[in-house]
Automatic annotation (TrEMBL):
Coiled-coil features, chain-numbered ranges: none
Keyword RNA-binding: no
Annotated compartments: Cell membrane
Family: Belongs to the integrin beta chain family.
Biased composition (Basic and acidic residues): 8-21
Record-linked InterPro entries: EGF_extracell, EGF_integrin_1, EGF_integrin_2, Integrin_bsu, Integrin_bsu_VWA, Integrin_dom_sf, Integrin_I-EGF_CS, vWFA_dom_sf
Protein name: Integrin beta
Stretches that traverse the bilayer: 617-645
Organism: Clupea harengus (Atlantic herring)
Amino acid sequence: MRNCSEVIDPKPSAHADRDEPVGSNRGRVVQLQPQKLHIKLRVGVPHTFDVMFKRAEGYPIDLYYLMDFSFSMRDDLENVRKLGHQIVSALKDVSSSVRIGFGCFVEKAMGPFISTFEETKKCPCKKSFEEPCQPSFSFKHVLNLTEDVAEFKTRAEKESISCNFDPPEAGFDAIMQVAVCQDEIGWGDVTRILVYASDNTFHLAGDGKLAGIYYPHDGKCHLNSEGLYDMETHFDYPSVAHVAEALSTNHIMLIFAVTKDHDEQYMAVSELIPQSVVGVLEKDSSNVVQLISKAYDDLLSTILLEHHRVPPGIDISYVSQCSDGTHSPRQRRGACNHTMINEQVNFTVTLHSSACLHQPTSFILKVQGLNEELQVTVETLCNCDCNDTERFSPECSGKGTLTCGICNCDEGRMGQSCECGTQEHKDSMFALDKMCISPNSSQPCSGHGSCLCGQCICNGHLRGRYCQCDHTSCNRHNNLICAGNGKCNCGTCECNTNYSGPACECSTLTDQCHTGGGGLCSHNGHCKCNKCHCHPDFFGRHCSEIRAPCIKFKPCVLCAVANEEDCKHTCGDIKLTKVNESATLVCFEDTVYYNVEMDKADGSIRMLYVPKSSKMYVVYLLISTASGGVVVIGLVGIIICKILLEIS
């Protein structure tokens, strides 16, 4: 905080100066709550508050019917004269009070938009047209907003059609005057709807230069005593943005009721004008009642909460909680669609200040198209206000006085929040902090915690008097600390019984290495971590399998067949056994069949062998000769058959 001798930490706060609940209150309808807020913000510290909107039933309506009076709309005028009562009746289904007004537009009364011949200017319609035809005009206000539907019919019947040269009309001139002439039109503090009916397009800003008009529209009301816009030849047509601003500022919703052949142009404009919709009008305006009813419901069911006149340095975001259960993330405005009558939507608004304001500043939040608004006054907490003190403050553990955000502790207490008691007069915060520093370190709690009253409060999984122990830093095996077979103590594994190793990964048991007779690994290997590790010539779980026995022990069996008396140097401790049958012997040489077996009880090796006899050679020779003869005879037979087939 600025201008403070001590550090203080004030918190953002909000107070509702006006907070009428939504609903009908003593005949007054409230749709937006609260209505007035005062917020104190810290720079860089966001603050949120809630805004509620409930669409009211029976909210009063002002509807102004603005009609194109060019010659092509003559049949529409006849229908509109009759439909005033039906329009009001349809709106009274959703509102307790409806007022209706009427106005019309054609074109600026100057060339090249109309004929400049005096006779034609007075009566611009075709001579064959027998009904009255009035001179062209940019806008005429005919009837103030009134509940008298009969008056609407009477005044509309007194008006006659007109005519102009080019297809576009001066509709935007007319919309601007209807929006800004508040007193002349008679707009009330109710739902305001402007219905714009036309069968053609519109002139835009810049088109006035065709008639030598260069002054841009000033956005002000210029109606004379007869209700005519009398500055049409002085100011250019307004731009779309200018029209949108005037409608939004005056809380007016716009319904474009236009024919099918021009609806795309008006839809493009509607996207630029908030709270506006486009409805397709029949050629004779016979469907205008249904069009207005549907457009009204579409407009009122879309709730858009926006901010206006926000001071620089204040950022605003919205989270919308709509009646249909949808929940939007942070957005630049609040938005809910398809909100029915008597349904409530909630908006969470977040303010964030990036700079100090020189003085309290106000801005508004309002729902598009409605005149209700929430006034928000914001001041930033950038300077100290240290006059208030609080004895026995909870911020000081009830043991001190809070002054300008700082605790002045009672006697016998110390610490930032007076949380520490002193046992002796010599105790000090310095002495208590020193108790948290280990002899081989310069940081309290080894830099991994905070010192509170002489004791370390360690961060996360760190432990120890000085937070020096990390119980997750031990060796791992199979991605488990201490292989899951021990506990980590200050970086070292303490293994459970029957386990060893830096990560407790090794079992000290030998039960998985035992073979018959009490031996380990068939006496052909050693047991490590309860698993057999075999000598080079053996393999298998218990080292009971011999690698390539037929090749390895070939010298030994040849020695035995040769009747050498001493094969010790060749066979070692192998037990030689001569047998009579060779059917089960899998190894063979030119003179012998043999097999090698291991006794799993003691790991000793035994060799069974039988020499090949001469009789066996004869049998083998006879069998081989017979087999070869059969093959030769078969081949000769095949060749003879092939030759006979070729000859035939």
